[in-house]
Amino acid sequence: MPAFENPSIYELKYTDLGTIWDAARVAGVKPGTIRVWESRGKIERMQIDHRGPLYHLPTVAEASKVKAGRPRDARAA
User: CA-CA distance, 17 to 56, in Å (whole number)?
Assistant: First the structure.
């Protein structure tokens, strides 16, 4: 289960879906970072049709707001 779950397929708007390049643009990162997030379970891709994997762009944008690393409180201890 990913940290940032996609909405149900019945709640999706097709305009909210994009390729890995669209997801990278929305998140402000490189496409390789999107692949890393996916492999680490931060986000997940969706296979809607034969066109290839798509990403829910609002979910990717939300995931991009969470920075990697430990919280400040953990370092202070």
Answer: 5
